[in-house]
Write a structure and sequence with these properties.
By secondary structure, this protein is mainly alpha-helical. It contains three helices and no strands.
Length: 94
C-alpha cells in the first residue's frame, strides 16, 4: 500500500491495525536470523508510526518504504548464490 500513488493514510492505518490484531493472536517465538529480526523491527516501527504520526504522514511513509525495500533485499539475498567454480566442473567426456 505504501507504494501506491493514491496513498490513503486512513485506509493504511485501518488495515495495519486489523492485520496487527490478527498477528497478536499467534504465539511469539524467538528466531535469530537477520531477516526475522529486521521484520520484527519493521513491524514495531510501523506500529509506532501508525499510533504517533505527523500530519501528512509523508516522512513516515518514506521511512517505511525504505525499510520495506531493505527488508525485501535481505529476504532475497539468501536466494541468490554464485557458482564460484562453474568453469572447473568435472567433465569426463561422456
Amino acid at each position: 500500500m505504501l507504494k501506491l500513488e493514491n496513498f490513503d493514510h486512513e485506509l493504511f492505518k485501518s488495515r495495519t491495525l486489523r492485520n496487527y490484531e490478527e498477528l497478536k493472536k499467534t504465539k511469539e517465538m524467538d528466531l535469530y536470523s537477520a531477516y526475522l529480526t529486521d521484520l520484527k523491527n519493521f513491524l514495531e516501527k510501523t506500529m509506532s508510526f501508525v499510533e504517533k504520526h505527523s500530519k501528512n504522514f509523508e516522512d513516515e511513509r518514506s521511512i517505511l518504504l525504505k525499510d520495506a525495500n531493505l527488508l525485501q533485499k535481505e529476504k532475497n539475498s539468501n536466494s541468490y548464490s554464485k557458482d564460484k567454480h562453474k568453469n572447473k566442473k568435472f567433465d569426463d567426456g561422456y
